[in-house]
Amino acid sequence: MSGTDLAHRHAVGGLFRAHYPWLCARLRQYLGSGCEDIAAEAFVRLLEAPQPAAIREPRALLTTIARRLIYQLWRRRDLERQHLDQLLQVDQPSSPSPEELAQLTQALQGLDRTLARLPGKVRATFLLSRVDGLTYPQIAAELGISQRSVSVYMTRSEALCARHSANQSLNRPLQNKRSA
């Protein structure tokens, strides 16, 4: 770890101590409970910043980062809601049972936890591509990274999703022949 990295970590630590309670209070206006996770993630994103620079307006920067995290959270919730609504609109004979809906919800939550293991920019790249439908050049411009990085990040996130999918198929219970 270089001196710059250590200095950046100490600077972010100082910002955390000084501004975390303020950010939580501000986020409570939008989210109510659960704001602590978003506030903590905002500081993690700040810590992961590729080029540490002097932060002149830490509260403005933290607000911007937190607002983006809130939008991502709302986007995921909207997608989950849309997916469940689509499943509920399917004809009754072929609609899933409550147990199947619960399994689907658990699978979506598992995928969300899997994606949460990815570093911030990798996860953001994946979501911008798969959820928002942005092209690689658009993602590169949005995140301020190269198209090559977008490609590498997508490969990394897709590999993780494939491993998640493989693990899910291994963990599914075998169906009874009579119910099949």
Automatic annotation (TrEMBL):
Q: Name one GO biological process term.
A: DNA-templated transcription initiation
Q: Does the keyword Acetylation apply?
A: no
List the GO molecular function terms.
Answer: DNA binding; sigma factor activity
Pinpoint the RNA polymerase sigma-70 region domain residues. 15-78
The superkingdom of the source organism is Bacteria
Show where the RNA polymerase sigma factor 70 region 4 type domain sits: 110-159
What does UniProt give as the signal peptide span? none
Keyword field: Sigma factor, Transcription, Transcription regulation
InterPro entries tied to this protein? RNA_pol_sigma-70-like (IPR039425), RNA_pol_sigma-70_dom (IPR014284), RNA_pol_sigma70_r2 (IPR007627), RNA_pol_sigma70_r4_t2 (IPR013249), RNA_pol_sigma_r2 (IPR013325), RNA_pol_sigma_r3/r4-like (IPR013324), WH-like_DNA-bd_sf (IPR036388)
In the record, the note on similarity to other proteins reads: Belongs to the sigma-70 factor family. ECF subfamily.
> What is this protein identified as?
Putative RNA polymerase sigma factor FecI
Question: Quick one: which gene encodes this?
Answer: fecI_7
